[in-house]
């Protein structure tokens, strides 16, 4: 069995974060993920986070424990943790996508998903659909 896993969770930021704060958060995550050989994606929309972590199970579990202890967010919900054959976000130690009402990506996601993106209500099936969307080059162009 492969030791390559992905873990997907959602949470709520305790306060709204602007683009500068999110960029700094992503920089710190990139540094830590580089050390632990993790890749992934962080999506932020309407004060909610959706994050994918990819890598060795032991590293993912260690980082996820630290995420759970981080007091910048709450209502953390693990959507899935399962083995994967290969990484989807291998190009990024931590990619960042900010989705706001006037962003091009929001409309493209709505068109792709044929419904409005709602991270608050996201479940395991939605997580898979969002993951599938961002595995496509069209959406990867929006990852910083």
Automatic annotation (TrEMBL):
PROSITE patterns reported in the protein's UniProt record: BLUF (PS50925)
Ranges for domain BLUF: 4-95
Domain of life: Bacteria
SMART domains xref list: BLUF
Gene Ontology molecular functions: blue light photoreceptor activity; FAD binding
Pfam families hit by this protein: BLUF
Protein name: Regulatory protein (GGDEF domain)
Originating organism: Legionella beliardensis
């Amino acid at each position: 069995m492969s030791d390559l896993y992905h873990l997907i969770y959602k949470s709520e930021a305790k306060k709204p974060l602007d683009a500068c704060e999110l960029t700094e958060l992503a920089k710190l995550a990139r540094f830590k993920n580089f050390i632990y050989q993790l890749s992934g994606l962080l999506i932020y929309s309407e004060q909610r986070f959706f994050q994918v972590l990819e890598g060795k199970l032991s590293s993912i579990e260690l980082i996820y424990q630290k995420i759970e202890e981080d007091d910048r967010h709450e209502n953390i919900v693990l959507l899935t943790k399962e083995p994967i054959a290969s990484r989807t976000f291998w190009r990024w130690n931590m990619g960042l996508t900010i989705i706001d009402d006037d962003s091009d990506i929001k409309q493209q996601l709505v068109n792709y998903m044929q419904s409005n993106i709602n991270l608050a209500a996201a479940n395991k099936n939605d997580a898979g659909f969002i993951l599938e969307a961002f595995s496509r080059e069209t959406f990867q162009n929006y990852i910083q």
